[in-house]
Design a protein that fits this description.
The complex is a heterodimer of chains A (about 150) and B (about 120). By secondary structure, chain A is mostly helical. Chain A contains 6 helices and no strands. In chain B, helix 2 packs antiparallel against helix 3. The longest helix of chain B has about 35 residues. Classes of the chains: A mainly alpha (about 150), B mainly alpha (about 120).
């Protein structure tokens, strides 16, 4: 992945210490500059929110939303741990039981996986995009087995 | 995300240059297709087996069709969505997205089964 496609020009060795492997694959721009370029481009494209900072990955609202969803997703994980106590397989053959256990296991970690995926993959996206993916995950991953057991 | 790719396109030889070898990608897709396949198989077998079972119990009119359809559709939709979202990304994000979809598929499958039990009418 981090293979450098072209040999470095002589005299540029010093810059190796100041760059990351793969920088040239990403356009040869350091991350800070790249984000700034993208931010200004975002600003040009979004005409409906001209006064808002185009992309402020460290804004208070963004951090607050991320923390809020971290708590929500933690609840989801706990909910699925409790759900795995409710559900059970009636299958007797080994394959079905193993598959069932695997299904329960990935259901338990689904909240953590979704949260981490959104956290890492929307690092450079607008806050609304990140919040949208977070909200979709909470909607999809509601731990119904436990909730239905409680509500019944 | 996509902005980075656009910026990088100026420097790369081809647009959407595959940074991962196609062989590795195909292996990834096949492995996850198998893993998504099991919940899909369960969904299909529920769709086939539940209606006659309910009919036998005398509650044939109460078949929760929407749940049966979700059980079949969710693995397919989530697999395709994960493939689409992974396009143009490197190997790890692709695998991560597919794993998230797989986990969500299994969570949904468990939810659907539990909902089906919850809405099943009482037997006389």
């Amino acid at each position: 992945m981090a293979r450098t496609s072209e040999p470095h020009e002589p005299g540029l060795e010093d810059e190796d210490a100041l760059s990351w492997a793969g920088d040239d694959l990403r356009g040869g721009i350091d991350p800070l500059t790249r984000n700034r370029v993208n931010a200004s481009r975002d600003g040009d494209e979004t005409t409906d929110e001209p006064d808002v900072a185009p992309d402020a990955p460290s804004s208070l609202a963004r951090t607050a939303a991320t923390v809020l969803f971290a708590v929500l997703y933690l609840t989801v994980v706990v909910g699925w741990i409790l759900s795995s106590q409710v559900t059970g397989s009636t299958a007797t053959d080994v394959f079905s039981q193993v598959a069932w256990q695997f299904g329960e296991f990935v259901a338990i970690i689904s909240g953590a996986l979704w949260f981490l995926a959104v956290l890492t993959l929307t690092a450079e996206s607008r806050t609304l995009v990140r919040v949208g993916w977070f909200a979709l995950g909470v909607g999809v991953l509601v731990p119904w087995p436990f909730l239905l057991e409680v509500l019944a | 995300m996509s902005d980075v790719a656009t910026t990088a396109d100026d420097e790369l030889e081809t647009e959407d240059a595959p940074r991962t070898s196609p062989v590795v990608l195909v292996i990834l897709w096949i492995v996850f297709a198998i893993l998504y396949g099991y919940p899909l198989f369960q969904g299909i077998s529920n769709l086939i087996a539940l209606p006659p079972y309910y009919a036998e119990l005398g509650i044939g009119g109460a078949v929760p069709w929407y749940l049966l359809v979700i059980g079949v559709a969710a693995p397919v939709i989530l697999y395709l969505a994960a493939m689409l979202l992974g396009r143009g990304r490197e190997l790890f994000p692709r695998a991560l997205i597919l794993a998230v979809g797989l986990a969500a598929t299994n969570a949904l499958a468990l939810s659907v089964v539990q909902w089906a039990q919850a809405v099943q009418p009482a037997l006389k």
